[in-house]
Amino acid sequence: MNIQTQLVKTITGFCLLFILIVINPAQAQQATWIWYPGDYEIWLANDMQNRRTERGAFFPPFWRMDSHYVLMDFHKEFNLAKAEEVELYAEGQYNVKLDSKMLPGAPTKVTIPAGKHKLNIKVHAQDKVPAIFVKGPTIVSDSTWLVTFEDKEWIDETGKVSGQSGTAWLKAGSWNFNDPKNLPSKFKLPTEPWKAAKVTRQPGSILVDFGKETFGFVKLHGLKGKGKVSLYYGESQEEALATETGETLDHLQVDRPQAVDMVLPGSRAFRYVNIQFDNSVSIGDVSMLYEYLPVADRGKFRSSDPELNKIWDVAAYTLHLNTREFFIDGIKRDRWIWSGDAYQSYLMNYYLLFDSPSVTRTLLAQRGKDPVTSHINTIMDYTFYWFLGINDYYQYTGDKSFIKQFYPRMQSLMEFALSRRNKNGMVEGLAGDWVFIDWADGLSKQGEVSFEQLLLCRSLETMALCASIAQDQEGARRYNELATKLKAKLFTTYWDQNKHALVHSRVNGQPTDNVTRYANMFAIFFDYLNAGQKQEVKQHVLLNDKVQKITTPYMRFYELEALCAMGEQNYVLKEMKDYWGGMLKLGATSFWEKYDPNEKGAEHYAMYGRPFGRSLCHAWGASPIYLLGKYYLGVKPTSPAYATYLVEPVLGGLEWMEGSVPTPKGDINIYCSQKQIKVKSGEGTGTLRFQSKSKPTSKGTRITAKGNNIFEMTIDKGKEYVVAYNAK
């Protein structure tokens, strides 16, 4: 075969492939259930967050809960080469219009003639989210459909809005419900059976140990008799045995003349289950159904330090337990979508799961509907974390469509926050606001707290970015101007030259003398400080034991990030081993809401004035995933979606480490020892940066000296690079 013939066949093959993928929509498009964007997330979040109980009592959230729109109009225009029949499914009562003419009844199949046509499906549902599923050879329900809650405003395919005034249309939302029989209203997370690790029997009681913290439904096997059965759940054995003070329990009245297997209806968090039952009742065995979100690990980490490897593994398990329909705070107690907790889960997610739908589901559930009447979760700082979450989501995923779609909701939330500034242009807690910051004894929340101004400033910078993406140039100018002015005011108001730090607050127009870690450590990784100020903060705040210490993994996350950003990986490694390793030494199988090494015995379980109020499986405890991925393996995007990125491995005292960091289109794989670095990436164009005592070498690759023993080289997609160097 000559070259010309081969070339013709190759081009023909590519053309056929193009026709199959691009021209034939039946091959390229996937039908899925669609709804008004954000409504399903709100509906599902309402269902999930109202499952919480405390000692058997219903315990709902204490913030406003929105609901879905009950009447929805779905719209799509088509230009068909030939007629086709489509199948129609709906969640709710519905009618169908073809070219504005009502079809009789509620048809399950419609034939659409060749040519240009418009299909409208109107759905009403009170108890569930109005949704449709449309499936034909080329016509399918997907995110290209337009949807309105009858505010009389549409947009055509060119992006031009038409119709009467009102809230703008949106493109339909979806979440991989790709089977017409897989109804969104019937969604449940999958389960799998788990056996107990140990069962201890006594007359009238069974103590079950599942070997580690877990979540799901207890299953009683061979349940028989008539009488009372009580189940007391515990993240610790002490809690399970404390029948009067444990947080979670179930009471059953049993009347089973024949032995049956029974699955408890409510999902619970536990390691131990203490089952008490009347003498007239017998139980053959106890197991559980472990409930989980089916998302696989993509991030990996291993090193020369076995304890650090264990910390990574337990952190990953902790994040999985708290990654459910949404990113929740903890599996035992609240089981709510707290914005501050979720924000950290997003960051960990980018280095372990890279599950974007879990991020957007959670963001939409938190945001709710207009009008805005309070801060997210009623907490001022949690509103600002919501904006930070969007900023990071864009940096890691490059998803402009999400920002364009939901920019109006960002605007209305920001305008609410700005409306609550005082005469000085600062935010401070008003009636109904909760200024949280952290769980810390004696931490003042009064006046104009520097930490809150810092978060607002970053949120305004996020809004300027999102406004540009949404092509709101006036908004971008305004938000950028507000951020610039507030940033300048931050330093004229709070920076104390004598204390070498930002002070904690200003009360009645006067800065306080108190220095805390919060604003100072955020100012480092927000890059708000110059090089000299960063060194001052590191020495006089972060490494100063006289400044009040942090005891929650929540803020420990940010403290250690700031230290890593300052090149203190050796110090941080020791801190991780002391802090998270300290929990492991106490038998932790998931990481806690709070850990204080000075506490003893059952003191570790107490919080909020309750002996077992503390969560022993809290999402914010999993932060080593993020720290090890970003600051040890050293991978981070330098432009959205890893179009460009940096790999800057730092051993921090380890002999070697290896791992993978997920990106939108592939993984970045790294191995680093004291003598060799290996990098391979399936994404973008990267820069490998490292320190070496002597000149490094890499076969066929140019390495550039940047001064101070720092070297750089370019990483191209799909290639593997091996560098010989002498670690500094």
From TrEMBL:
The keyword ATP-binding does not apply. It comes from the Bacteria. GO terms for biological process: carbohydrate metabolic process. Residues 298-630 form the Alpha-L-rhamnosidase six-hairpin glycosidase domain. The keyword GTP-binding does not apply. Residues 73-275 form the Alpha-rhamnosidase-like N-terminal domain. SUPFAM superfamilies: Six-hairpin glycosidases (SSF48208). This is Bacterial alpha-L-rhamnosidase. The lineage of its organism: Bacteria, Pseudomonadati, Bacteroidota, Cytophagia, Cytophagales.
